[in-house]
Amino acid sequence: MWTRFSLLVLCLLLEVQGQDHADGRYIRCQYTFTVDSPVESSCNNAMEAENLSARVTLLEAVVSRVLGAEAVPETARTLEETEEIRQLLQEKEQLDVQVKELQRRVEELTLETEKLRERPCSSVTKAFQEVKAEVSELPTSPKVQKNVQQDAGCGELVSVSEPETHQKASSISGKYGMWFQGNESPGAPYGPDTVWRIDTVRNDVRELYAYENLEQLARGYPLKVLVLPEPMESTGATVYRGSLYYQQKRSPTLLRYDLIEEKIAAQRELPHPGFHGQYPYSWGGYTDIDLAADEKGLWAIYSTEKARGAIVISQLDPDTLRVTRSWKTNIQKNKVANAFMVCGRLYTVASYRANSTTINWSFDTTSEQSKTVDVPFRNRYGYNSMIDYNAARRKLYSWDNFHMVTYNVTLAKSGSSP
């Protein structure tokens, strides 16, 4: 009786333990036998032995079933790892092929380089000529193209036309003044034909008139009137690349006024210049510092104590107004009526009053040489207070005793006839 009961309990325990350890790798089976007291026999008859044998067989079957269930996931994992290893081996074979191909290519390039080095420098292959042609045809930047276009046709001034009158100032404030057409449009609302005008006979010169074109200037209808934040000195201003450049009143300070932003964009003192009547042109008018623009850039024409009144030319950075280079001439500033720059050369006018006068001196900033010239020039109205060169239009703009006039100019290469 006790024997049967013990075997039954043992089987139940084995089934529970097999389920609890299904996720483990091993199952531990513990056999427990309960025996009768010494008085009783463990197997008192053959029937009990057969029953015990049957139950042991059943127990072994249960254990085998549990072990079989545990082996399946292990087999699956082994198959997955085998497949992954196979794929990695395939990738390695592909990479080996690529490495060999690259090594072969490196060897070919090395041999080709050695052959090129062994060739004489004087020999030029057809392939090199084709590459050279392609490089020479690469488009240049807009800024470089613009400078090349402006320099094209540059030369010495050989003649000036008769003056053409465009407008006459109607009030006493317009006896002296300045007017310009920019080399390019600064942007809306101004166009490439915009005309700029400043009347300079007043206590504080601040008003800058803008006209749509020459026709509107002649009619007297300004497009806009700008009020400068700082008053200007005399008639030495100029317009260049969208800005008005001028000298501040009673000061050696130069100002760059942005015509679109309508504000001072840069300011800087000119190094040691005479100003406010120290070294003016022969007609006076506090014309100590004269700003000019041409194909080569922005310039300041003035004198210093060190130069003893002789004209000094300084090229300016148009953005910062910093002096990039200076030249001292042997031309006395108070002995000439006015001056302007053309293609990097300074030209001076002999008289501001004489109806028929001449452009009498030139100084070349490239050769650093000055010479006398004799180009006829007319002051039609008898008091020329401003002359400014426009590189884009190849014209001189002048303010002659209330009148706004222009002159066409002719340039010629050095040593050639016009």
UniProtKB/TrEMBL annotation:
SMART domains the UniProt entry points to = OLF (SM00284)
PROSITE patterns xrefs: OLF
| Pfam families xref list | OLF
Query: What GO terms are given for molecular function?
Result: metal ion binding
Species per Swiss-Prot/TrEMBL record: Bagarius yarrelli
Q: Which residues form the signal peptide?
A: 1-18
Q: What is this protein called?
A: Myocilin
Q: Does the keyword Transferase apply?
A: no
Q: Which GO terms describe its biological process?
A: osteoblast differentiation; signal transduction
Q: The organism sits in which domain of life? A: Eukaryota
Coiled-coil region list: 78-119
Q: Which InterPro entries does the record cross-reference, listed alphabetically?
A: Olfac-like_dom, Olfactomedin-like_domain
Olfactomedin-like domain segment(s): 153-413
Q: Does the keyword Cytoplasm apply?
A: no
The terms describing its cellular component in GO are: cilium; cytoplasmic vesicle; extracellular space; Golgi apparatus; mitochondrial inner membrane; mitochondrial intermembrane space; mitochondrial outer membrane; rough endoplasmic reticulum
* Keywords of this entry: Calcium, Cell projection, Cilium, Coiled coil, Cytoplasmic vesicle, Disulfide bond, Endoplasmic reticulum, Extracellular matrix, Golgi apparatus, Lipoprotein, Membrane, Metal-binding, Mitochondrion, Mitochondrion inner membrane, Mitochondrion outer membrane, Palmitate, Secreted, Signal
The subcellular location is:
Cell projection, Cilium; Cytoplasmic vesicle; Golgi apparatus; Mitochondrion inner membrane
